[in-house]
Amino acid sequence: MNGARALLDTLVGNGVNVCFANPGTSEMHFVAALDTVGGMRGVLTLFEGVATGAADGYARIAGTPAAVLLHLGPGLGNGLANLHNARRAHTPMVVVVGDHATYHKKFDAPLESDIDAVAGSVSGWVHRTKRPGDVAADTVAALDAARRGVVSTLILPADVSWSDGATSAEREATVTFGGGRDDGFTLDDGAVRAAASALRSGERTVLLVGGDATRAPGLAAAVRIGEATGATVLCETFPARLERGAGVPAIERLAYFAEAAAEQLAGAQHLVLAGATSPVSFFAYPGKPSDLVPDGCAVHMLASHRGAAAALEHLADELAPGSTATVASLARPDLPTGDLTAFAAAAVIGVLLPEGAIVVDESNTAGVGVAAATAGAPAHDVLTLTGGAIGYGIPAAVGAAIAAPDRPVVSLQADGSALYTISALWTQARENLDVTTVIFDNGAYDILRIELQRVGATDGHTPGPKAQELLDLGSPAMDFVRIGEGLGVPGRRVRTAEELAAALADAFAEPGPHLIDAVVPSLLS
Amino acid sequence: MNGARALLDTLVGNGVNVCFANPGTSEMHFVAALDTVGGMRGVLTLFEGVATGAADGYARIAGTPAAVLLHLGPGLGNGLANLHNARRAHTPMVVVVGDHATYHKKFDAPLESDIDAVAGSVSGWVHRTKRPGDVAADTVAALDAARRGVVSTLILPADVSWSDGATSAEREATVTFGGGRDDGFTLDDGAVRAAASALRSGERTVLLVGGDATRAPGLAAAVRIGEATGATVLCETFPARLERGAGVPAIERLAYFAEAAAEQLAGAQHLVLAGATSPVSFFAYPGKPSDLVPDGCAVHMLASHRGAAAALEHLADELAPGSTATVASLARPDLPTGDLTAFAAAAVIGVLLPEGAIVVDESNTAGVGVAAATAGAPAHDVLTLTGGAIGYGIPAAVGAAIAAPDRPVVSLQADGSALYTISALWTQARENLDVTTVIFDNGAYDILRIELQRVGATDGHTPGPKAQELLDLGSPAMDFVRIGEGLGVPGRRVRTAEELAAALADAFAEPGPHLIDAVVPSLLS
């Protein structure tokens, strides 16, 4: 068989059965192989950033990796921002980048570029397959690497793809994904003892939870520890997948703005990291510390992003044997009325969020009220913008919906970020995915209006007209309903809480994608 | 002054007065400086790929570089594909990538990534500014490098941007852009002699023209040489900027498909390269040569991409002293009638193309008839997809229109490629640019349907349903009129030649951006 078939066969044989693709000429044999090798679903996206974001959303929900098929260096470049987010989320992913034929590269054809250098910036594993006979083993190696929670990038030259001499994998990848005790992570006894000692010290301790501990088992263990020891339990600012809502142990997230995060951490003498990294300011600000760990606070690394849930469960059994974590109660906000604001929109979402929803949150500043408003909604998952590279939400909703076709996906999307990868709406329509996208439409890069002041760029003065113009999205105003309809997703514009409630209820009642353009004022207005 | 102001001041002082921007927090001091340093026009784009493509289109028309402002590694990644095209076009460009503050990088904050590695893949010059006092000199160095026809990338840490201690440039950059004799390029006398000898040999010679020789002076010299010596004069397949139409010396372009290109070159015993690279197949195909130079053909490098026009003029004066090049006559096609096809659409464009138009051509397969149909139109420039990375056209039209506000820009755009950077329409509306976008809407990645066969991926059989699905854009059908309207550009859908003619006439008559969704059948149907 040729290399393309061996690649597909090995992927399918190891449980990878979705491939988000934006192929080109150098990938045509892979495309053709989809019809000869069964078991792989090819999902077309209109831009590579949609493919990579979708694969990230898919893997966060499915727990198994999707494949991504990209075309040469420029295709990889287009997918890079969402690979960056996936890297920060420790998402397992296998990225296949088709390259020119091995003998063609020396001619420096127009699309030739340094794929390896670009791939290296986001991938935990990069390999260039040299012969058809190596395809299966290289694919297994890519999957084994992905298991560690990295983006694996396999560069597949066109002639390796089209030439015969390949075989399917003789051995299967050791891929197992998931969370909890059974993952076989080796506990670091010393780290557990140190964390236990800090938590027993009676000194103010913060337990910062992240990685694989932000799902119910890890959260339950963390809350048990907090309830038994008095430690403050916080979740990392941007968890890859946070389980929350009624019936799930609830923990507050570390704030995005450094000033607020510093308040949450103030006075801590011990900081125990369970799957989270040590907290730092998202950006630097003149005269303000980057490191958010309070002076004199001892940092104890309990576990890295994988194995954190298992370590917390072990620690909870030691510190709070037999205890049960308090869980959030079902408590929805009251339905607001009148003109829509960011907070009113959040409340409406809190009132109506369906059971078992997957919330993809790229609502940025306009979504400031969503976490509080949905804390008592029925249990749901939240996927967040782990790497800060905007343009993640609409693609990730594609992947989440494909991973969990029976769950409603609610995609909360800031207007500015939406335009990065707006064509993902088309894939939602094409695949008839049950995604409800709410655009928080405030007509501005509101976060940057805030940041312009916070970094002191205008010395406390009102920004000048040129600066304001670069942060404004209102001239001309975008019409997301028309954009959505042009891409095959029906939409509705809403300006009041009642209209949003009606639009959400209708969208949740009818399968398939919907878009709601929720016009809200800027937080600064 | 702070680093941001010194950067702007130095750019403006050296004639760079447009900056295409998609800023973030780390660039806020640059944004604020736009109001304190006069002379720089900031143009907001909704995606970095729009900013880089616009800067490419701008510089190709203006002859001077634009600046681009990008946000950290992911912003650079989003702009990478169009930087790849700019690299292949030898476009002078200064890319400023804001980075975290120097002291912040060690904390590996969420947006931290290897900017240098990614920038290196597309830039002829990359530098990371270390101190505010270095900003002005580094900016001059970036401009000097850009003069060589490269993408210069200046990485500007946020604290260098916001800290005082910078001054304006003490010396100006040696930047001079343009073409023709006065550029001061040193002629390679040996190369000129070798080329002259080949052209005088009486053996079949092809003169392949590219680089700065695809504008009127270089073309005239090349045509004079061809007319005097009998050499076949061809233009590189994807010129950065080709002048053509009535009154301009006309030369045929080397074909995209290798089979057709091989026919154009068949029998050549000498190939003289004037600003073009030696012809190679765009992609490799099983069993077919990558190198398109015929066996036994001697290749003579007359000049590289810059200085080619000057070298040709020198050579023409030697080989054809006192001669004048034949130029194309004004000759428009007849206006077709009835159902629109790709060729009918091309003819309508040929009938109506305005004097002095700038044609940005990303029409790909559907635009196959455009070159012939517009050969006798009034003189115009054509910008092409030099690097093969799609998503170039709509952004490049933005830049071209800003560079030449008095010239009509005609953006010929394939449907599949359009979705890569569709938000560029919004910037066209925001800046009220005189751009008429014609979407060749055939509902498919038609080029890939062709390539799937050409690479032999289906062994001559009809592609299977999964392969066909990955090349289809018709399910759901996109409505570009709605998409355009949602982004602020009025549009019209046309299905007949008459409708296209009416829509084009209206668009050309009314200033500002317009979109025409031209529904055409697939070339394969």
Automatic annotation (TrEMBL), chains A, B:
Q: Which Pfam families match?
A: TPP_enzyme_C, TPP_enzyme_N
Does the keyword Acyltransferase belong to this entry? no
Q: What is its EC number?
A: 2.2.1.6
Q: Which organism is it from?
A: Mycolicibacterium psychrotolerans
Catalytic activity, reaction form:
2 pyruvate + H(+) = (2S)-2-acetolactate + CO2
Domain of life according to the entry: Bacteria
**UniProt-listed NCBIfam families:** PRK07586.1
User: What biological-process terms (Gene Ontology) are attached?
Assistant: isoleucine biosynthetic process; L-valine biosynthetic process
> What is the gene name?
ilvX
GO MF, one annotated term: flavin adenine dinucleotide binding
Identify the residues that the record assigns to the Thiamine pyrophosphate enzyme TPP-binding domain, covering every copy: 385-517
**Every Thiamine pyrophosphate enzyme N-terminal TPP-binding domain range:** 1-108
Q: Per its record, how is this protein called by name?
A: acetolactate synthase
